[in-house]
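#struct-help
A.M.: can someone run this one for me? Single chain, 196 residues.
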Amino acid sequence: MRRLKRPEFAFVFDTPPPDEWVSLDCETTGLDVGRDEIISIGAVRIVGQRIMTSERLELLVRPERGVSAGSVRIHRLREQDVAQGLPVEEAVKQLLHFIGSRPLVGYYLEFDVAMLNRAVRPLLGIGLPQPKVEVSALYYEHKFKQLPPYQQHDNADIDLRFDRLMADLQLPVRDAHDALNDAVMAALAFIKLRQL
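D.P.: on it. Structure tokens below:
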């Protein structure tokens, strides 16, 4: 185990509870991982085939540079909505305690993890160490196996848009671009894809 800057977070390397994951999503001020900021974090625990909505984390995060009109149109979080939010370091500490050592689940999780790691690295000295499960990759594998052999090639045309994925899996859709809703929908898709 690499030395953590903050030994009190060593629990992230514990053996995860069996058959548990955390589905997470972030809303941000934009899509530039180097410059934009997190404004909300939603996370929910998955135990076996169940989404534990009573065990969820919903945090507003106060950005240092404000919220653009363009980003408000997407996630409907205005400057005044996030003004009382947590500083990002405090939000990330709460998230780390919520996740523990559980593997992470998400839809295009790589972006959320990259955004979170900007706050996690100064705190821990490393990025989020938990294993990661990408829902769009699980879906791609599922759809790829259904293709006739002559269509199975590296660039098989499979629509990975979240709304298409949810519709194809016949799962209920919640309002998108809300961190907790997106985390719950990713959890639903994860559970369904594991069953298929």
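A.M.: thanks! The chain has one domain: 7-195.
D.P.: also worth noting: DSSP finds seven helices and five strands in the chain.
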